[in-house]
DNA sequence: CTGGGGAGGGGGCCC
DNA sequence: TGGGCCCCCTCCCCA
């Protein structure tokens, strides 16, 4: 009827003035038009084409079109108006259920349920929550007609196999990185967008890999380490117009719910989708068990998840006790878990402060064995975490009453304690000596000001930090294997946050919008920087020519121009005090130690390095302010000479 | 064509 | 865990 009415003007307009001649254009209707349109839209959704909204449901991502959502659901309509990223309450709708709802929106059909699929009752509840009246009506009708609600609740499907083959027809993220197969619907020349899933959905595994660690289920390179997950369930963005995407690890291997053994708690805090589902709808436990059975989920029919989890737990415990270093990828996964647990266990600072390093633990353990300590060896040859516990619980020292003050270890006799003290590495002694030579900034305990401010020193590179967590974070940079791989491109990162941020670029998420021009950014800092363009603020001033810049990096690039002449040689001279200040600051305060030492070790490098130039003035100011010294005074006090940097002595050259 | 500035974007890393 | 900052690369525009 609408078509006829809408086309009426057209018929009138095309009718010849005389009324006769060519036949009158009658309004016609193509019955399959709406169906074809929906099919096209659904195809586009599957390919991610023109999708302008991402819906996050717990650990799963769905891409869709705002118009379609708005036309189907009053609730979603209210959301998509303001946001490109929707975060649905997974207590109300689980990822599996939402997939069915989204399918219904795009196809007008409600997928049949098979064992493990969300029940019709759950779909009804979700449809009510999302305000999809057509689906609500359909669910009610189905429930009334079939009268098999009890079976549904029990996980039994009266419908047989799924007609639309959700599992088979949903390749999801086919590729993580090079070498992986491309999606079947992708043309060879087409940019490979790993987000182009058939259902426009991505899943983030909350299981942190239990079944993923099964050989044969997933290529080893896809075995994302457990702690690498993006937590989808946390953090909301500061911008009201958007939401960040805290994700848990995106699981590239399956289009459906993340695989979780019953009762398996995600380390990231993301509970099982199906546990949530069952709890939300008071489903009996067997529903979840049926849903997540790995044999249902993965090609190759892996063993049941629960024994798998147990085996993994045993393996993990074994490795934990053995203190095995990361080796194979699976081992790395275990090592990462271990590291996570160690971090949570509030391990003490390492090396030079009352602490126990892992290798020291082993040494300590061997010492105990040698001396017949009351503490017997632990499985695998080390005491592992127990040793750490011993070291910090005086009452647990047992007969080891002679305690080494610096490291807190106990020994049964003074002779053994003396032997232990002598065994402290030369490096430590050298450092202490170095600190004592540092002169006026030392306290009587032999600690430099830098050590006081940053007492947690990396045993690998000598960098110092204010707190142990930062030190642990830093130490990951020394790991041969970066623990947080991107599940889309495979790039690995040393910090989870960096990987999360990287993922945002894959997903095209730019939560921070400029109010003035509408430009969006992936980071708040970028927006702040960008806003200076509108405000005209240029806080970065060139100390040489007075030029001002809105962005620091452009000042740095500008300084390059000042520093390096046409022949590449330096153009500027800098006062000795500046060098002295940098040396003082680097050595005593631990600020940019490596960089300052590097800069000072070679004057030419220093002069050609804008980073050093830029850092000198703030460093000098900092030093003057905090130590109550003038630059000249500090320079006079320090004088020319070798810079003691860590356990190395670096010659310093005067800029003249 | 080239150099310089402006600006977007990504990774590293400390707090 | 996310924010913030630093550093780098890159592109674009303009003189």
Automatic annotation (TrEMBL):
Q: What is its main location?
A: nucleus
Q: Which GO terms describe its cellular component?
A: nucleus
Q: Which residue stretches does the UniProt record annotate as biased composition, category Basic and acidic residues?
A: 248-257, 336-346
Q: Does the keyword Transmembrane apply?
A: no
Q: What's in the keyword line of the UniProt record? A: DNA-binding, Metal-binding, Nucleus, Repeat, Repressor, Transcription, Transcription regulation, Zinc, Zinc-finger
Subcellular localization(s) per the UniProt record: Nucleus
Q: Which residues form the BTB domain?
A: 51-114
Question: What's a Pfam family this protein contains?
Answer: BTB
Name all C2H2-type domain ranges: 402-429, 456-483, 484-511, 512-539, 540-567
Q: Which CDD domains match?
A: BTB_POZ_ZBTB29_HIC1
User: Which residue ranges are recorded for the region named Disordered?
Assistant: 1-22, 229-275, 331-382
Q: Which domain of life is it from?
A: Eukaryota
The question of whether Nuclease is a record keyword is answered with no
Q: Which SUPFAM superfamilies match?
A: beta-beta-alpha zinc fingers (SSF57667), POZ domain (SSF54695)
| Compositionally biased residues, Low complexity | 364-377
> Known InterPro entries for this protein?
BTB/POZ_dom (IPR000210), SKP1/BTB/POZ_sf (IPR011333), Znf_C2H2_sf (IPR036236), Znf_C2H2_type (IPR013087)
Where is there biased composition of kind Polar residues?
A: 348-358
Give a GO molecular function annotation for the protein.
zinc ion binding
Checking Gene3D superfamilies in the record gives: Classic Zinc Finger, Potassium Channel Kv1.1, Chain A
Q: What family does the database annotate?
A: Belongs to the krueppel C2H2-type zinc-finger protein family. Hic subfamily.
Question: Can you name this protein?
Answer: Hypermethylated in cancer 1 protein
Phylogenetic lineage: Eukaryota, Metazoa, Chordata, Craniata, Vertebrata
């Amino acid at each position: 009827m609408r078509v006829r009415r809408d086309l009426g003007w057209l018929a009138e307009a095309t009718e010849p003035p005389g009324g006769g001649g060519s036949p009158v254009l009658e309004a016609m209707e193509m019955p399959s038009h709406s169906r074809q349109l929906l099919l096209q839209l659904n195809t586009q959704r599957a390919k991610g084409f023109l999708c302008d909204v991402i819906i996050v449901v717990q650990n799963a991502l769905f891409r869709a079109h705002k118009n379609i959502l708005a036309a189907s659901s009053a609730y979603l309509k209210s959301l998509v108006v303001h946001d490109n990223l929707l975060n649905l309450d997974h207590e109300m709708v689980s990822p599996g259920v939402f997939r069915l709802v989204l399918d219904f929106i795009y196809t007008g059909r409600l997928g049949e349920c098979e064992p493990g699929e969300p029940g019709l009752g759950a779909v009804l509840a979700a449809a009510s929550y999302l305000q999809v009246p057509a689906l609500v009506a359909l669910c009610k009708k189905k429930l009334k007609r079939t009268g098999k609600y009890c079976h549904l609740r029990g996980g039994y499907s009266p419908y047989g196999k799924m007609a639309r083959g959700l599992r088979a027809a949903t390749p999801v993220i086919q590729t993580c990185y090079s070498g992986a197969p491309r999606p079947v619907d992708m043309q060879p020349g087409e940019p490979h967008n790993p987000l182009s899933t058939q259902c426009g959905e991505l899943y983030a595994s909350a299981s942190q890999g239990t079944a993923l660690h099964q050989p044969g289920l997933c290529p080893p390179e896809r075995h994302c380490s457990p702690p690498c997950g993006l937590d989808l369930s946390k953090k909301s963005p500061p911008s009201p117009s958007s939401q960040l995407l805290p994700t848990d690890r995106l699981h590239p291997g399956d289009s459906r719910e993340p695989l979780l053994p019953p009762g398996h708690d995600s380390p990231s805090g993301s509970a099982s989708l199906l546990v949530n589902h069952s709890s939300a709808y008071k489903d009996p436990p067997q529903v979840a068990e049926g849903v997540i059975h790995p044999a249902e989920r993965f090609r190759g029919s892996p063993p049941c998840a629960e024994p798998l989890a147990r085996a993994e737990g045993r393996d993990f415990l074994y490795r934990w006790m053995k203190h095995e270093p990361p080796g194979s990828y699976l081992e790395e996964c275990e090592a990462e878990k271990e590291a996570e647990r160690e971090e949570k266990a509030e391990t003490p600072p390492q090396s030079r402060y009352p602490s126990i390093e892992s290798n020291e633990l082993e040494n300590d353990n061997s010492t105990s064995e040698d001396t017949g300590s009351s503490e017997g060896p632990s499985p695998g040859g080390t005491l592992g975490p127990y040793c750490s516990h011993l070291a910090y619980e005086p009452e647990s020292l047992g007969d080891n009453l002679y305690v080494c003050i610096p490291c807190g270890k106990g020994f049964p006799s003074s002779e053994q304690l003396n032997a232990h003290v002598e065994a402290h590495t030369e490096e430590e002694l050298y450092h202490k000596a170095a600190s004592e030579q540092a002169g006026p900034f030392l306290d009587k305990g032999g600690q430099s000001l830098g050590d006081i401010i940053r007492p947690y020193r990396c045993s690998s590179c000598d960098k110092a930090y204010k707190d142990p967590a930062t030190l642990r974070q830093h130490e990951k940079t020394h790991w041969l294997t970066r623990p947080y791989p991107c599940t889309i491109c495979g790039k690995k990162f040393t910090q989870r946050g960096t990987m999360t941020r990287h993922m945002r670029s894959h997903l095209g998420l730019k939560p921070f919008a400029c109010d003035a021009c509408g430009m969006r950014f992936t980071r708040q800092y970028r927006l702040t920087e960008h806003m200076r363009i509108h405000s005209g603020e240029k806080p970065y001033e060139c100390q040489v020519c007075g030029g001002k810049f809105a962005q620091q990096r452009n000042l740095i690039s500008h300084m390059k121009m000042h520093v390096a002449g046409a022949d590449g040689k330096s153009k500027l001279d800098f006062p000795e005090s500046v060098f002295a200040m940098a040396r003082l600051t680097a050595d005593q305060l631990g600020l940019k130690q490596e960089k300052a030492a590097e800069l000072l070790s070679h004057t030419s490098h220093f002069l050609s390095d804008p980073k050093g130039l830029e850092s000198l003035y703030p460093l000098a100011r900092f030093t003057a302010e905090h130590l109550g010294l003038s630059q000249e005074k500090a320079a006079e006090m320090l004088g020319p000479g070798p810079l003691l940097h860590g356990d190395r002595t670096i010659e310093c050259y005067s800029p003249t």
